[in-house]
């Protein structure tokens, strides 16, 4: 069962939206707050190649940010991806 990891910052509205969408889907995820933690920021950049939050991973698969997550959900792909985590 792949773990879901979300790199976030507390004041980021897109982070809140991503966590809300995942929660609405019943997904259990780990949140990594990168605010003020340069080591976690570097980890996120190395894993995703991106500097913005949120960055969402299902196992080793990089889903992307909130827009990517929302687009995946709109295509029906999020439910399929999350079903693989149960």
From TrEMBL:
Q: Name one GO biological process term.
A: cellular response to oxidative stress
Recorded GO MF terms:
glutathione disulfide oxidoreductase activity
Q: Which Pfam families match?
A: Glutaredoxin
Keywords tagged on the record: Cytoplasm, Disulfide bond, Electron transport, Redox-active center, Transport
Q: Where are the transmembrane segments?
A: none
- Cellular component GO terms, alphabetical: cytoplasm
Spell out the SUPFAM superfamilies in the cross-references: Thioredoxin-like
Q: Which Gene3D superfamilies match?
A: Glutaredoxin
Checking PROSITE patterns in the record gives: GLUTAREDOXIN_1 (PS00195), GLUTAREDOXIN_2 (PS51354)
CDD domains the UniProt entry points to: GRX_GRXb_1_3_like
Instruction: Please report the stretch or stretches of sequence annotated as the Glutaredoxin domain.
Output: 4-63
Give the family this protein belongs to, as stated in its UniProt record.
Answer: Belongs to the glutaredoxin family.
| Function statement | Has a glutathione-disulfide oxidoreductase activity in the presence of NADPH and glutathione reductase. Reduces low molecular weight disulfides and proteins.
List the protein's name: Glutaredoxin
Organism field: Paraburkholderia rhizosphaerae
